[in-house]
């Protein structure tokens, strides 16, 4: 029996073919598939973050709308002071924190109030007038910036009412009243100061202003004679009403104008309030007559 001298058949593969890489089109396809798989994963992760962000945004919007509704209600549903006549009966004030006081006496011309102490933020007004629209707007904005976050705590504080404007002696007299913005005139310098009453919850622990034009002052309690009136305020109107109040107090059997007292004007309403529903007040510090 003969044995084959030929070895068993072997398939030879050229070296070049054994080490050859797949065509570039195949590699590209694989990479594209992997990239697509990654993109799908990343898309899912991105979607989760987007939904989370949207939820937070919706929550913030709801809180904002709730706060806006609350603040709007304070103006839509205002409060009223006890009125002495029809003009006062039509006046309304926003339901915001205001100066705390107690009415001691009241007659047809004015009322006597005992004010509690409070703090104010004040700034010197530009120009020579206390009720010049441009100067008043500038001063109001400076104080509003402090109230709404331009302070050392970057904290937004609640708005109060009214805005106070008043004239003082050149040496300075502690400001009174709260809630409003106060504008006081420095007699010798022919300047006015405007003030915002600070929310009472802070007491003496108010954040400091970042703007050096704003200062914080403590106003002690005092007794004042007050007259309310509607409409918009002008410097001429203040002069006329102050003179009438001083003349009326001359006939008061219990109180007299305190020596050196200057007029202060409180404005309770925002600019969009109808003139006949606006509440303004002028006041003079008084003291009891010696018996």
Description:
The structure is a single chain. This protein is of the alpha+beta class. It has five helices and eleven strands, in the order αααβββαβββββαβββ. The protein has helices at 15-18, 24-76, 86-90, 133-147, 235-249; strands at residues 101-106, 111-115, 118-125, 163-166, 184-186, 191-197, 215-219, 222-229, 255-257, 264-267, 280-288. Strands 1, 2, 3, 4, 5, 6, 7, 8, 9, 10 and 11 form an eleven-stranded antiparallel beta sheet that branches. The chain starts with 14 loop residues before the first helix and ends with a strand.
Radius of gyration over C-alpha positions, nearest whole angstrom: 37 Å
* Number of strand elements: 11
Topology as a string of helices (H) and strands (E): HHHEEEHEEEEEHEEE
Shape: globular
DSSP summary: helix tally: 5
What is the SS-derived class? Answer: alpha+beta
Give me some keywords for this one.
single chain, 291 residues, alpha+beta, 11-stranded antiparallel beta sheet, globular, disordered N terminus
SSE blueprint and pairings:
Layout: H1 15-18, H2 24-76, H3 86-90, E1 101-106, E2 111-115, E3 118-125, H4 133-147, E4 163-166, E5 184-186, E6 191-197, E7 215-219, E8 222-229, H5 235-249, E9 255-257, E10 264-267, E11 280-288
Antiparallel strand pairs: 1-2, 2-8, 3-6, 3-7, 4-6, 4-10, 5-6, 8-11, 9-11, 10-11
């Amino acid at each position: 029996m003969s044995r084959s001298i030929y070895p068993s058949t072997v398939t030879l593969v050229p070296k070049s073919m054994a080490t050859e890489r797949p065509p570039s089109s195949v590699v590209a396809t694989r990479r594209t598939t992997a990239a697509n798989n990654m993109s799908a994963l990343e898309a899912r992760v991105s979607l989760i973050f987007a939904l989370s962000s949207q939820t937070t945004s919706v929550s913030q919007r709801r809180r904002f709308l709730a706060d806006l509704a609350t603040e709007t209600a304070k103006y839509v549903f205002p409060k009223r002071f006890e009125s002495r006549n029809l003009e006062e009966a039509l006046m309304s004030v926003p339901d915001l924190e205001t100066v705390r006081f107690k009415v001691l006496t009241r007659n047809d011309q004015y009322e006597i109030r005992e004010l509690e102490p409070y703090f104010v933020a004040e700034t010197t007004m530009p120009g020579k007038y206390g009720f010049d629209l441009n100067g008043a707007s500038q001063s109001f904005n400076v104080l509003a910036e402090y109230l709404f976050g331009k302070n050392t705590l970057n904290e937004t504080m609640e708005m109060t009412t009214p805005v106070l404007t008043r004239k003082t002696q050149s040496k300075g007299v502690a400001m009174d009243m709260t809630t409003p913005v106060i504008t006081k005139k420095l007699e010798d310098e022919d300047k006015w100061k405007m003030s915002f009453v600070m929310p009472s919850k802070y007491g003496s622990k108010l954040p400091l202003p970042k703007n050096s034009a704003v200062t914080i002052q403590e106003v002690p309690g005092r007794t004042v004679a007050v007259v309310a009136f509607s409409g918009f305020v002008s410097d001429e109107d203040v002069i006329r009403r102050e003179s009438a109040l001083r003349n009326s107090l001359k006939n008061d059997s219990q109180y007299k104008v305190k020596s050196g007292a200057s007029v202060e004007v409180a404005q309770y309403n925002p600019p969009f309030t109808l003139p006949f529903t606006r509440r303004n007040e002028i006041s003079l510090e008084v003291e009891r007559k010696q018996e």
